[in-house]
Each structure stands twice: as C-alpha cells, then as structure tokens.
Amino acid sequence: GAVVSQHPSWVICKSGTSVKIECRSLDFQATTMFWYRQFPKQSLMLMATSNEGSKATYEQGVEKDKFLINHASLTLSTLTVTSAHPEDSSFYICSASQEPTGELFFGEGSRLTVL
Amino acid sequence: SQQGEEDPQALSIQEGENATMNCSYKTSINNLQWYRQNSGRGLVHLILIRSNEREKHSGRLRVTLDTSKKSSSLLITASRAADTASYFCATERGAQKLVFGQGTRLTINP
After folding, report:
1. pLDDT tens digit sequence for A41-95
2. CB of A82 closer than 8 Å to CB of A65
3. Which residue of A has its CA nearest to B10?
4. Which long-range contacts (CB under 8 A, 24 or more apart) does B79-82 make?
5. How far apart are CA A113 and CA B82, in angstroms?
6. Which 3 state secondary structure label does DSSP give B47?
7. Beta carbons within 8 Å of A86's beta carbon, 6+ residues apart
8. Taking CB atoms and an 8 Å limit, are A106 and B44 in contact across chains?
9. Is the pLDDT confidence value at B30 over 50?
10. I want to staple A71 with a disulfide (CB 3.0 to 4.6 A). Which of A77, A84, A114, B44 is the partner?
11. Chain B residue closest to A5 (CA)?
C-alpha cells in the first residue's frame, strides 16, 4: 500500500522555539493532506486541510498563525508550530489523499514535547 | 467537534475471545470507517462500510452498520495479543475530513 512518512517521529524543544514537522507521500501524489492533533488517550482532532499550491484551510479554533502549513509540492506538506509552548505538546498525525482514488493514508505521527 | 462516541472506552479480554466495540454518530453519513492505532503510532485503515451496507467482513473483522440507530459495531473474533490497540470509528464531514470517535482501548491478555 501507499506510504506516508512523517519526520521527525519525535521532537523535544524549548518553549518559544518553532518546530517543523514534515509529511511526505513517498510513492504517490497528494493534492490534499490533512493534519490532526491527538492528546494522550484521546481521539484525533482535525486541525487543517493542506492544499497543494494554495492556502491551508483551518478548522474552527485552530490558530493559523500558530500552526503554519505549507504544501509546496504534490508530495510534501509541512506543519510548523511557531513559538511553541508546553500546551502545544501533543501527537501530530498527517494523512494524505491518494490521487485519483481519494484513498487516505496516515503517517506514523510526530510526538512534540515542549519544555 | 467529535461526533462519534464509542463504547466501551476500554476493553480487556483473554486471548481467543471475541471483542466487540460500538460506535455511534450524529449526522447522516455516506460511509463509516474503522481504524486501528497501536500505542504511539499512526492509524491503520481496517474497513469501510457504506451507508447502504448492513454488514461487512474482512478476515477476523466483522462490521455492522445500523443507519436508523446511527450506530456501528466492530467485532474481532478469536482475538490475539497483536490485536491490542486503540480502535476508532470515523465518519466523513465532507471532502475527506474525518471525524473520529473517542476510541476503544482494547487489551488482549495472553
């Protein structure tokens, strides 16, 4: 099956710094990718829809200036957590929509810990 | 907001037993999907059932859908230790945006 890779798998950073997480579709093109956030022992919450070549669409309550999304190519979307704070610590998971079927494939997730 | 609710939140059974998890949702759907998540990992797609289907099988998995009750169940037969994971149902809120249930944490005891 199709593979979606996230990098890094885990990252620890100091409060106030910015962290970039990459989501790559390794063997297919994805015009659309999705970013989810998951707190411990909780469900996944959709944060934003990443569209190649255009601005991301953010869900209600998600700060677009806090969570910068860039989808510059058909195989790569990045999520940058700017000026990270401890409350941003979470598990971030991306999914990619395979063209033309629209089947979704999930990355392995990236665990962010902000000290 | 999450529209799906799952029960039980946690389930612990002995290896070899069957595990049943339930999911309820609030809005009309085109399909419902079930995913598995091993601890600290990404999601693995298990099965998709369309709104005009009532039951679907895949290996040891059996999914039912009752659109009149807005509920679905996932049955795992002859459970194995490797089935230990969290299981989530998900519905689409338009354009592939998935809304996940709260999940069931399944533990299979050897």
Report:
1. 889 999 999 998 889 999 999 999 999 999 989 999 999 999 999 999 999 999 9
2. yes
3. A41
4. B79/B13, B79/B14, B79/B15, B79/B16, B79/B17, B79/B18, B79/B19, B79/B106, B79/B108, B80/B15, B80/B108, B81/B15, B81/B108, B81/B110, B82/B108
5. 28
6. strand
7. A15, A114, A115
8. yes
9. yes
10. A77
11. B42
- Residues B33-65 have pLDDT tens digits of 999 999 989 999 999 999 999 999 999 999 999
Tell me which residue in A32, A49, A93 faces B43 most closely, judged by beta carbons. A93
Residues 6+ apart with CB under 8 A from A68: A79, A80, A82
Confidence of residue A99 (pLDDT cuts 50, 70, 90): confident
Peptide bond into B8 cis (omega under 30): yes
Would you say B98 and B90 are in contact if contact means Cβ atoms under 8 Å apart? yes
Contact between A33 and A78 under an 8 Å Cβ cutoff? The reply is no
CA dihedral B105, B106, B109, B110 (to 10 degrees): -130
Q: Which residues of A touch B9 (CB under 8 A)?
A: none
CA distance B42 to chain A (A): 4
Q: What percent of chain A has pLDDT over 70?
A: 99
Report helix, strand and coil shares of chain B as percent, to nearest 5. 5, 55, 40
Of B42, B45, B98, the CB nearest to A109: B42
